[in-house]
What does this fold into?
Amino acid sequence: MKNKLILIISILSGIILTIILGFVPYPTGELIGIQKWGYPIYWLSQAVYPSAPIEVSWLNLFFDCAIWIICFFLLIKLINSLITRYKK
It folds into this structure.
């Protein structure tokens, strides 16, 4: 596969997975009274009281998305190299 196509698929997959994992509660042990979501880095947080706003940590969102994009890129490259190796 071309590297551009792999990069586009990785970016889209990383963004989608980051959004999906925004629904996963982040295990917090340090602060009681704050809920956090996202994995492996939390990027959504909310204080536990009525009508508290949800806060987005944009830097954490960027790094979380970058982690997943890199993981997908490496995984696709690995699968692609295994397929071409055993295809011969």
About this structure: Residues 58-87 form the longest helix (30 residues).
